[in-house]
Specification:
Blueprint: E1 2-5, E2 15-16, E3 19-20, E4 26-29, H1 32-45, E5 49-51, H2 61-70, E6 77-80, H3 91-101, E7 111-113, E8 125-127, H4 139-146, H5 151-156
Parallel strand pairs: 5-6, 7-8
Antiparallel strand pairs: 1-4, 2-3
Helix pairs in contact: 1-4
Length: about 160
């Protein structure tokens, strides 16, 4: 999964960090094969998705849902992390702010990202390659962090 940006031709639209991103320059490109892998993890772990991508700031969340559905996403997006928290704050700080706001609601979580700016949450990061994205090689660690490995799988391994 990736968010691609074109050349700026005006600054209208959602915010990313401390800058405005022109809405007409953002496109969602999703690889159905990668989405299928994610679907499998979500189903096996009985997990939901919280977006920390710039997509969470789009005013038209219907478009985000539509693009996810077109790529075959069958999961449940339950929200998004807060936006930019200020200078010297990382993506990990944004995720921690969401976790703090939902204290007691989260049994397990994993951060799936191609960036490692997670600060104290690094142990929960499954780092993907920005070109290759999510692969089957990531699945065991994702399930381990989410507690989604069932007893029969544990016996079989």
């Amino acid at each position: 999964m990736d968010t691609w940006r074109g050349r700026p031709d005006g600054w209208e639209g959602p915010r990313e960090g401390n800058r405005d991103i022109p809405l007409n320059l953002l496109r969602i490109h999703l690889d159905p094969a990668r989405v299928a892998i994610l679907n499998g993890v979500l189903e096996r772990a009985d997990a939901v998705v919280v977006l920390s991508t710039s997509w969470r700031n789009w005013p038209d969340q219907g478009l985000v849902a539509e693009k996810l559905a077109e790529a075959g996403f069958r999961g449940n997006v339950v929200g998004g992390t807060p936006g930019w928290l200020g200078p010297r704050k990382s993506r990990g700080d944004e995720i921690q702010a969401w976790l703090d706001e939902h204290d007691g609601e989260v049994e397990a979580f994993v951060i799936l990202d191609d960036s490692d700016d997670m600060g104290a949450l690094m142990p929960y990061l499954v780092l993907t390659d920005p070109v290759d994205g999510l692969t089957e090689a990531h699945v065991p660690r994702l399930l381990e962090l989410l507690g989604g490995v069932n007893r029969s799988e544990e016996v079989a391994t």
